[in-house]
Amino acid sequence: MISAILLVTAKGDVLVSRIFRDDIPRGAADVFRVQVVAGKESRCPIKQFGPSVFIYILISNVYLVVVTNRNANIATSFELLHKLVDIFKAYFNGKFNEDSIRNNFVLIYELLDEIVDFGYPQTTTTDALKLYITQGKFADKKERTPAEMTRLSQQVTGAIPWRLPDVTYKKNQLFIDVIESVNMLVSTKGTILKADVSGKVFLKTMLSGMPECKLGINDRLLMTRESQMVFARRRTANGPAIKNSGILLDDITFHQCVRLGRFDSDRTITFIPPDGEFEIMRYRITENIGVPFRVIPIIKEIGKTRIEVQVTLKANFSIRLVGTLVVMKIPLPKNTAICKINVPIGKAQYQPAQDGIIWRIRRFPGATEATLVASVELTPSVSGKTTWSRPPICLQFTVPMFTASGLYVRFLKVVEQKLQYNTIKWVRYASKAGQYQYRI
């Protein structure tokens, strides 16, 4: 149960103070400002001073604080604070800082009154709030009648608050974007020390009515069940066996529209989608990762004033695909004087501000390789000692229509019982580099 929500700057100025219950002192904001902001003690996100407990996070030099004097659910409080940041960014055109807060005092108080009711969090989704708080980014000059406001209130507090039933489109379409971030760390001997993929699935829905969607991916558990059923049928009919192929999802987070019970029972993602763009799921994979690029570095130190660099970049994906916006940073010592570089593709240049060679390739075809060769001359050190720590080679890239995890959409069904229309479906894939590093 929440007694108050505060927004305080890093200097101690109280920007917003919304009190929902009268069970805390009126000077709670001053207590937080003096004890936490101006205090020199450790920055623990949970503090208790007298009867009041302060739960806070710091975003863009602004403290978001939940104040309570009861045994509140800590996880719920932190989740609410992060949800508030997401909602404010949605209404403030992606900005959340002191200036955006000062420019939107009235909107913030209106949002807080709708999000929290007498200390209990109620509506925390932008899709539901934008239906009747039409300010900021979601400004709507059209005035709604009392009947329309009543209908919106019933919709927001109903079983499906994220979607209105009277949405209509002339052309019903659904777009799916699967975006993956590849993180990898490779040792100097070429051994993979760490590798994982963090993925997000985004949907953009332009569907009429209240459609029910069913999304299937190549989940290993689902495909194992299906292969066992098919194998049993084929075994009865003396037919050939089939191979099971699928991915094992380690961590999954769904949008609130997904029916978790259905996913637990049959591993399919069933949902009634919000209108427009939203993120339906996040996942992480740590097994059987397809490495899109491989780097083979050879760094030779010749004496104390010369280094020979040879770095080979190989594309492990299909020749039908193309990597784009490939950028490789090859570190060099700070006392580099002259750097002569030769590359067969793209452009490479030594940048002293980056302490290394920056190799940029606009398009890198699949199943090909390219080698950078550089001769580096160093300025002799006064002490005669070289202190080059050999930072790792960093790689940035984007590979459209490729997933490092192997995830793909097996099927997508859209059913609207009343309208019964046909849906045009689009699917895109992309893999990007997260922390992609090779030690040298």
Give the structure's gist in a few sentences.
By secondary structure, the chain is an alpha+beta fold. The protein is 19% helix and 41% strand. Strands 11-13-9-8-23-21-16-19-18 form a nine-stranded mixed sheet, with no helix packed on it. The protein has a five-stranded antiparallel sheet with strand order 2-1-5-4-3, with helices on both faces.
Which key terms come to mind for this protein?
single chain, 440 residues, alpha+beta, five-stranded antiparallel sheet, 8 helices, 23 strands, 19% helix
Q: Mind summarizing the main beta sheet?
A: 9 strands, mixed
* Separation, N- and C-terminal Cα atoms: 53 Å
**Strands, total number:** 23
Strand content: 35-45%
| Average pLDDT figure | 87
- What is the structural class? alpha+beta
| Low confidence ranges | 231-244
- Tally of helical segments: 8
Q: What portion of residues is helical?
A: 10-25%
Shape annotation:
globular
What is the spatial order of strands in the main beta sheet? Answer: 11-13-9-8-23-21-16-19-18
Q: From the alpha carbons, calculate the radius of gyration and give it in angstroms.
A: 28 Å
How do the strands and helices of this protein lay out in sequence?
Elements: E1 4-9, E2 14-19, H1 28-37, E3 46-49, E4 52-59, E5 62-68, H2 74-91, H3 98-102, H4 105-115, E6 116-117, E7 120-121, H5 126-129, H6 146-156, E8 173-186, E9 192-206, E10 212-217, H7 220-236, E11 251-254, H8 260-266, E12 269-271, E13 276-285, E14 293-302, E15 306-315, E16 322-331, E17 336-342, E18 347-351, E19 356-365, E20 369-378, E21 393-400, E22 409-415, E23 424-438
Parallel strand pairs: 8-23
Antiparallel strand pairs: 1-2, 1-5, 3-4, 4-5, 6-7, 8-9, 9-13, 10-12, 10-22, 11-13, 14-15, 15-20, 16-19, 16-21, 17-20, 18-19, 21-23
